[in-house]
Design goal:
5 helices
C-alpha cells in the first residue's frame, strides 16, 4: 500500500492498468488526447503488480484497473472518468493538478 501511495502523490496523474485491458487503453488514450502525460503503471508488467492490485482493492478501487488518481486523489474507474469527461469537469481536475495548462 505504501508503494501505491508514493506513486500517487509523486505525479499529477497516475493510471493503474493492465497492458491487455482494452478499457485501460481507452482511458490512457483519453488522457493523452487531453494533453496530459499520465504516469502509467501496468500491473501485469510490474514484478510487484499483484501486491499493488491488492492494495488498490483495499483502497476501495473496484475493479482495480483502470484506476485513476489525479492530484493525489482517487478519482475513479473508467465509468467515473468518462462521466467527468462528458460533463466537462475532467479537464478542470487536470488543470488544478497541474497536468495540463490550457
Amino acid at each position: 500500500m505504501d508503494r501505491v501511495a508514493k506513486l500517487v502523490y509523486k505525479n499529477p496523474v497516475v493510471i493503474f492498468s493492465k497492458s491487455s485491458c482494452c478499457i485501460c487503453h481507452s482511458i490512457k488514450t483519453l488522457f493523452y488526447g487531453l494533453g496530459a502525460n499520465p504516469t502509467i503503471h501496468d500491473l501485469d508488467q510490474d514484478e510487484r503488480g499483484k501486491e499493488m492490485e491488492q492494495a488498490l482493492t483495499k483502497l476501495g478501487c473496484n475493479p482495480p484497473v483502470p484506476t485513476v488518481f489525479i492530484g493525489g486523489k482517487f478519482v475513479g474507474p473508467a465509468n467515473k472518468i468518462l462521466a467527468l469527461h462528458v460533463d466537462g469537469s475532467l479537464k478542470n481536475l487536470l488543470k488544478n493538478a497541474g497536468a495540463i495548462w490550457f
